[in-house]
Amino acid sequence: MADNEKHPVELDPEVEKNLPAPLANAIKEGKVPADVLKHSHDADEAMKAFAGNEGQVIELSEADNKRILRIIDWNLIPIMCIVYGLNFLDKTTLSYASIMGLIEDINLVNDDYQWLGSMFYFGYIAWEYPTSRLLQILPIGKYSAACVIAWGLVLSCFAAVENFGGAVAIRFLLGLCESAVTPGFALITSQWYTKREQGLRTGIWFSFNGVAQIVGGCLAYGIARGAASTGSAIAPWKIVFLVTGLLTMAMGVIFLFVVPDNQLNARWLKKEDRILAIERIRVNNQGVGNKHFKMYQLLEALKDPLTWGITFYALVADIPNGGITNFFSQLITSFGYTAEQSLLYGTPGGAVEIITLVGCGYLGDKFHNRILVSSSGLILAMLGVALIVGLPLDNNGGRLGGYYLTQASATPFVAFLSLISTNVGICLLDLAFIYWYCKRQNKKKAAIRAQPGYVKLENQEFLDLTDRENPEFIYTL
Q: Do the beta carbons of residue 108 and residue 163 sit within 8 Å?
């Protein structure tokens, strides 16, 4: 019997009623491989939008596509940019505070400050898996908003700490609250935008790290100068935490009302436009979300070399990144500048990050090659590190310029977010491996689609198949 011959299957009525109609029909007609049948017992949330419409053609004109994209951009991107900027600003407040009297006021000694920097990431790691699961099973817009409000409250409380123990507790809780932000924003972006649109949008909201560095440096400088000239009722570093924390809480409330859980409950989309908003991301072959945990999908991810390639990159790249985030103010003072000057002189690094992230995001989408384009930022960062280490100690301007170049290092990580997002030369090898692996998998999928008898199911994009199960899924390079 030929391999491509169809084998009709009898379905138990109890099983059939829990399957999407297109998948149930395909099973009975023998159009779907058995390994897919065994696992794809429930579909993506997007299938709800098409319930009762099987067989009907939903046409999305180019004009409607552009119109809906504009609506999505105006409602999602501004709030995501501001909140993500605050996310970075909240982490850098410790660096600003370190040269504004924090160390002396709460009696930090020896390696206490280093532990404060690390404690944020202990909280982040501890809650990363639970928060990723909660992002899946809870309404993503509401849960993300709750996390934003919670981290703003925790950050404000840092102004009340009086000793190392209290500061450690706050930093741990801050990492716990903020662990939902980056994965949540990556999910929201993939939920609303096509693959060709995701690179630029991810680059835009992530670039507000740079905006936060500019605004935060100016804010801290203004507070420090004002307190020095006129005095203040509380320590200047406490004002920094209160301002950023309260502002974050306010933005969290706005986020709650603006960002929907998915296209089906977006207040700012008409009912008919909600269907079209889902239809326009059909090309992603990813859907908009499924709330059920599937062990086989976890095991598949753990066996996937791509998973470990991205994990390895994040590990080796974020070691120096975490150090720079917590110590950049002290790094600049080591170049021979005063504490107040370091607050202001750190801001151009934010401009470098904005330009490289948005530029690489745009060019990566334009040339359909985010990985290779993003590696240019990593090369700039390597040059920056070389300048800091190699230039004479009295060349303050050159070493400061080297620090600015290191701020381009985020471009590959952001590229990975939109694809999913000392050790840097290792990172370039890892980028090359990920590029090769994705290209190889795309060739294999093309061969499957070219086989005689291959059938693409109706609404296959929304059946919650993994990238390996779905021959229509194409890895973005």
A: no
Q: Where are the domains of the chain?
A: 61-280
Rounded to 10 deg, the angle between the 140-157 and 181-192 helix axes is 150
Structure token digits, residue 177 = 């609250």
pTM across the whole model: 0.67
CB 415 within 8 A of CB 370: yes
Q: Are 384 and 402 in contact (CB under 8 A)?
A: yes
Reference 354, options 407, 419, 413, 399; nearest CA is 407
Per residue of the chain (477 residues), give pLDDT as tens: 344 445 565 656 655 555 555 556 655 665 554 444 444 445 555 555 555 555 455 677 889 899 999 999 999 999 999 999 998 887 778 888 887 888 889 998 888 988 888 898 899 889 988 898 898 889 999 999 999 999 999 999 999 999 999 999 999 999 999 999 988 998 899 889 987 888 888 889 988 988 888 888 888 888 888 877 787 788 888 998 999 999 999 999 999 999 999 888 899 999 888 888 888 887 765 555 555 555 655 666 666 666 666 666 666 666 656 556 656 667 777 777 777 777 777 788 888 888 888 888 888 777 777 777 777 777 888 888 888 888 888 888 888 888 888 888 777 767 666 655 333 337 445 556 666 667 777 777 777 777 776 666 555 555 555 556 566 666 665
Measured CA distances, 81 to 128, 167, 213 (Å): 22, 28, 13
**Cα–Cα distance measured from residue 40 to residue 28, given in angstroms and rounded to the nearest whole number:** 14
Return d(Cα 401, Cα 9) in angstroms, integer: 67
The answer regarding whether domain 61-280 maps to CATH 3.40.50.10680 reads: no
CA 152 to CA 244: how far, in whole Å? 8
For 302-325, letters b (16+ CB in 10 Å) and e give eebebeebbebbbebbeebbeebb
